[in-house]
Design brief:
With 120 residues, the chain is mainly α. It is 78% helix and 0% strand.
Amino acid sequence: MVSPVQLLGGAGVPSALFALGMSLHARSRPTPAARTERRLLASLKTVVRPLLAYLLARYAFALSGHALFAVVLCAGLPTAQNAFIFASEYRLPTDLPRDTVLLTTLLSMVTLTLIAYALG
């Protein structure tokens, strides 16, 4: 039997995805400067961060094998839904976190595959 706390805890991720999906409906086109900002954030998160994690893990901490793979793979994960949820909870603009979550999720499919191929 599932306790109410477990049931509530299990609903967290689907609820965040549902909220993000609902926010995509009324999407306005970002300005060219905003598009550049989103591309920069997505590039930093999906390319630069895993590369930096690899360099630090490999050369500063002398990791190899599964440990190195885990560090780089975790660094390449997309931006969490929490960024969007926090922005909406505190009534901040949600356009930037929403677009960043969406872009990094799409890009991470490619980058995580490349990381797994290169280090797996």
